[in-house]
Write a structure and sequence with these properties.
The protein is mainly α and 276 residues long. It has 11 helices and 5 strands.
């Protein structure tokens, strides 16, 4: 997703494992994101990603490093006044949809609750370390992504995949309710639940309104139907010459222009809520 720090007018925080992430460099925060990860420890584990629970451990380590760097009083202020932007969960549900074993083990409702319970526990862990301001971003409109269209309805690329959309919307509804419950129970906390799903749907069905080409179900990279991640590289045949004309960069990710529009739909409200 487009760098959250940029929207807050801050420099991009260093990755947690960067050799430069030490000393005064970490006073601006830390980035614990891991591409392809989810809240659940087994999501995309084969790819070597860092699950959300481990990322939370890293944030707690960062909180402690501030104490060592500036003292407990100043560290407490930094930790409590910093916004914590959380964007996890999409990959958990994608893995469920692609894994018959998980579908046999859990119903959709059970799996949604498993993810949300893990998220709630992790957010409480951050709170116990002094965090108070949380920006929780919804799951995105995964059923509109070119990859979902290719796998589930290749002959209808003008409609989002309904069963995926319904599942993701259901998760978002329960995820939002969980954050509202946390704000009620965690004294002094502030939560903003950012809706990234709705603007993504609008972009898909009304691309010309935003300056995108009409054939929105085709991505820029390669054939635009299935390539993503490392499959999008200098050798990818067929890649477009103007990514800004496309809503999707690859089959599973928006272009930078797409991200800017989606984030722009909620960023001011998020800032006003958390930084007021």
């Amino acid at each position: 997703m487009l760098r959250s720090s940029e929207n807050f007018g801050l420099p991009f925080p260093l990755p947690y494992n960067s050799p430069d992430a030490k000393g005064e460099a970490v006073l601006q925060g830390i980035n614990t994101a891991s591409a392809g990860s989810g809240w659940l420890p087994f999501t995309n584990l084969i790819l070597g990603v860092i699950p959300g629970t481990k990322q939370v451990e890293w944030v707690r380590n960062w909180q402690q490093s501030l104490v060592n760097l500036v003292g407990s009083g100043s560290a407490s202020v930094i930790v409590s006044e910093s916004p914590y932007v959380i964007n996890l969960g999409d990959n958990d549900l994608v893995q469920y949809l692609a894994n018959p074993v998980l579908q046999l083990k859990y119903t959709e409702d059970e799996y949604i609750q498993l993810i949300i319970q893990t998220a709630v526990s992790s957010i409480k862990d951050l709170y116990s370390g002094g965090a108070r301001k949380f920006g929780v971003i919804s799951l995105f409109a995964e059923g509109c992504y070119p990859l979902a269209l290719t796998v589930l309805q290749p002959f209808n690329r003008k409609q989002c995949v309904e069963k995926v959309q319904v599942l993701f919307q259901k998760f978002n509804t329960e995820y939002k309710a969980a954050t509202e419950s946390l704000q009620s129970s965690l004294q002094g906390s502030k939560f903003y639940f950012a809706d990234g799903f709705t603007p993504g749907v609008d972009l898909f069905y009304n691309p010309s309104k935003y300056g995108f080409r009409e054939e929105v179900g085709i991505a820029c990279c390669g054939t635009g139907t299935i390539e993503n991640g490392p499959l999008c590289n200098i050798l990818s045949v067929g890649t477009c010459s103007n990514a800004a004309a496309y809503l999707y960069w690859d089959a599973d990710h928006y272009t930078e222009k797409g991200w800017r529009i989606i984030v722009g739909a909620f960023i001011e409200d998020l800032k006003n809520t958390l930084l007021s």
